[in-house]
Design brief:
single chain
Length: 259
C-alpha cells in the first residue's frame, strides 16, 4: 500500500461518510450510453445514500429508470466490504430482477481497485461471500424468503409488484421478526396499487404525528420508516419536453404510474 492508498482506504472505511467516498471514487456502473464510468450520483441519489446509512428502515417511491437499483447496489457492496460478519439479503419480485441487482454489484466489485476490494471466498450469480465474514444473497420474493436467516440488511426491489399480494403480506410478516434484533431494511419501488403492502408502508412512513398528536423522531413515520419520494423532474436529464414525448408514447395514466 502506498500512503495515498492508505489514506483513500481510511476515507472509504469512515463510518459517517465512507459510503459517499466509495461511491464517487471507486464504484463503476454500466451507463446505457456512456458505457463504463464511475458512479456520479445525482442530488437525490446522495440523499438516498445518506438515508440508507442514517435510518434503519427506508421506503422509497421513485420513477422508472431513475437509478434506484444502482444506488442501492452501491450501498450494499460498500456495506458488505466495510462491515464484517453481515448478512445482506436482496429480495426481488422476479428471478431476473434479483440476478440483475447481483450483476450490478459484481460489476462494481470487479472494477474496484485491489487495495479497496475485500477478498471473496465464494462468488457466483446468486451470492457473494467475503473473507471478512459478510455475504450478499439474492433471492426471489416468496412467502419463506429470509425465514430462519439472521439478516443484517434486507433490500426489497420493486416491492409493489410482488404478486399475488398475499405473497407480499406473508413475506413481510415472516421477515419482520428477523429484523427485530437490529437489522436494516431498504424498500424501493414504483407505485402499483393503493392497497398493497408497499402502499401501506409508504402511508405509514409519511404519517409523522402519532395518535397522541406527538411528532415522530428523526423525520420517520409512525411505522419507523424514513420515506423519500422522487419526482421525475428531479432527474437532471428530464425536462418538460421529455415528459411531453413520454406521455405521447405511453399515455397519461401510465406516465403517472411509471414516473
Amino acid at each position: 500500500f502506498t500512503e495515498e492508498q492508505v489514506e483513500l482506504l481510511i476515507k472509504c472505511s469512515d463510518p459517517k461518510e465512507g459510503f459517499l467516498e466509495f461511491a464517487k471514487r471507486f464504484f463503476y456502473i454500466q451507463h446505457p450510453v456512456k458505457g463504463k464510468c464511475v458512479f456520479e450520483p445525482f442530488e437525490y441519489q446522495v440523499s438516498l445514500l445518506h438515508s440508507y446509512h442514517d435510518h434503519r428502515f427506508n421506503v422509497n417511491m421513485l420513477p422508472r429508470q431513475s437509478g434506484k437499483t444502482t444506488t442501492a447496489a452501491c450501498y450494499l457492496l460498500w456495506f458488505a466490504m466495510f462491515h464484517p460478519d453481515q448478512t445482506i439479503l436482496i429480495a426481488a419480485h422476479k428471478y431476473t430482477g434479483a440476478q440483475e441487482i447481483m450483476q450490478r454489484i459484481r460489476y462494481g466489485y470487479e472494477l474496484c481497485p485491489d487495495f479497496v476490494r475485500a477478498g471473496v471466498i465464494n462468488y457466483n450469480k446468486g451470492s457473494m461471500d467475503f473473507d471478512n465474514g459478510s455475504r450478499i444473497i439474492a433471492q426471489t420474493t416468496t412467502e419463506t424468503t429470509g425465514r430462519g436467516m439472521s439478516i443484517s440488511l434486507v433490500y426489497m426491489d420493486e416491492f409493489a409488484f410482488v404478486e399475488p399480494q398475499q405473497k407480499a403480506n406473508e413475506f413481510w410478516t415472516s421477515l419482520s421478526p428477523t429484523l427485530s434484533t437490529g437489522g436494516k431494511c431498504i424498500i424501493t419501488s414504483t407505485p402499483n396499487n393503493d392497497d398493497d403492502v408497499f402502499a401501506g408502508l409508504w402511508r405509514g412512513a409519511n404519517k409523522r404525528v402519532d395518535e397522541f398528536g406527538q411528532p415522530t423522531r428523526d423525520g420517520t413515520g409512525i411505522n419507523g420508516f424514513k420515506a423519500i419520494g422522487v419526482h421525475w423532474s428531479e432527474h437532471p436529464d428530464r425536462d418538460e419536453q421529455w415528459a411531453k414525448d413520454e406521455r405521447a408514447r405511453i399515455g397519461e395514466e401510465r406516465f403517472r404510474r411509471e414516473h
